[in-house]
Amino acid sequence: MNNKLADFYREYMEEMQILGLSDDSDSFVYGHGDKESSVVLIGEAPGAEEVKAGVPFVGAAGKNLNDRLEAGGITRQEIFVTNAIKYRLSEVNPKTGKLRNRPATAQDVRANSRWLRMEMELIKPKVIITLGRVPLKCLLPESNYQMGDVHGQKLDTDMGVVIPLYHPASIIYNRELTQVFDDDFDNMIKVVKTILGK
Ligand code: URA
Hints:
Blueprint (H helix, E strand, L loop, with lengths): L3 H15 L13 E2 L5 E5 L4 H6 L6 H12 L8 E4 L6 E3 L6 E3 L4 H18 L3 E5 L1 H7 L7 H4 L4 E3 L2 E6 L4 H4 L4 H19 L2
Parallel strand pairs: 2-3, 2-6, 6-8
Antiparallel strand pairs: 1-3, 4-5, 7-8
Helix pairs in contact: 1-4, 4-5
This protein binds uracil.
């Protein structure tokens, strides 16, 4: 069933290039893990490390995520990990001439929303965990959820159960969020373990 995903990602890249959102086909990183899993985790967009490896969440934020999943008894192989935006959000730093990360624009969010929802319709997970503001907005574009209000909750949505968490990079920049992130993460792990029958 999920060979469809490869065709889907090919069409997605073509559209993003036509829209001029990314002209570098090497900067695209697609979902990874068990395509049949009942559990999907969605990040924002790949960074330089992810582009190099061709796998989401392998850099510093990925280490945070992977360590916590492992501590909770969940492996990356049991779930599917993808990003709302599948190309690196980058721009040229005029001072160095090198690429640096840039924030997602409203256009990135708008263009990726439909594709993210279609990706979830192909995978049909029982629970979706979003990491940060961007995947939540892409997945539920009509909602006006604020992370401060909904983090850690189980939301009943037209995409099924969605648990929004802060992005694992946010605790690198804002240490005060660590406890909140850890508590949300522990509760999410309990839900995921029930769904995976562990
Ligand atoms: N941050 C994300 O949101 N996704 C990645 O793949 C890596 C870092």
